[in-house]
């Protein structure tokens, strides 16, 4: 008999099997590739379907991954798929965020200038504050506001995933988190279509138009694409501004972690200050990659390939998260969880338009 499985004969006097069952419970099952593979393959197939639909019909892949994942939620009830889906939602997310560090350098941030950078901080603060206000007015609580405001202020779904890892499921249920992801993806898709047209209608020059798009559209690829839809100069400006927002992901997550403290902890059980200041490992790795990318000349194609891999891993994470979300909870939540996303998006655009027209 394996040494890992207790001999039932040793518990012959345990009439109800309580001691024997407790011994088994204290040893969690070993996670192997064979255990993870069914869930990972299911998630991969759903994500590839989302990518195919995105390429052929022009919808954001993240949004399609969310919708396909929600439609396939019933599969996650199969016991063979749970471990793989949870692995994808947790670990692919973190690796994808780390790889975003290949997209930005300190020199790019410094090239913005102090006034546009200060304006960018004001835009992000407005989005964050509006998300908190929208959550309060709709009765969603501050954690929903932090999630929606932070995702809108920084970089959409990837920021939402990073912030949710700090907030925790015990503070904000997964149904409202999924609705926030859907809202952010929808808002980003609508902004990609509307903001370049608004910039051209208002007669903004290329620099101001690029600033407006880069400072207010949530998703990285859509912000950059929206800039280049106006002109090459606007696209270059939008890229720099958007990457500066991505670079601020780490300090924002660190500040939120410091502000909220440990999930479920209070009073004497809370971690000391120096422990709460510490950032999640993937945020530290993200910052480290930004520093390496700033001072080490990367081979050609590394940034482009890194972005492609990052986007795919984040798509896998989002799809897996949606598959693990209960549709009944989403239906019960109604429209209210969307309110923080709406208020944060409107505030972000209004402040970005003010800065682009008055300061740039």
From TrEMBL:
One of its GO terms (cellular component) is plasma membrane. The chain crosses the membrane at residues 31-50, 57-75, 114-137, 143-167, 179-198, 210-231, 243-261, 281-300, 312-331, 337-359. The keyword Transmembrane helix applies. Keywords: Cell membrane, Membrane, Transmembrane, Transmembrane helix. The keyword Coiled coil does not apply. It is found in: Cell membrane. It is a multi-pass membrane protein. Belongs to the UPF0324 family. PANTHER family: INNER MEMBRANE PROTEIN YEIH-RELATED, UPF0324 INNER MEMBRANE PROTEIN YEIH. This is Sulfate exporter family transporter. It comes from Altererythrobacter rubellus. The lineage of its organism: Bacteria, Pseudomonadati, Pseudomonadota, Alphaproteobacteria, Sphingomonadales.
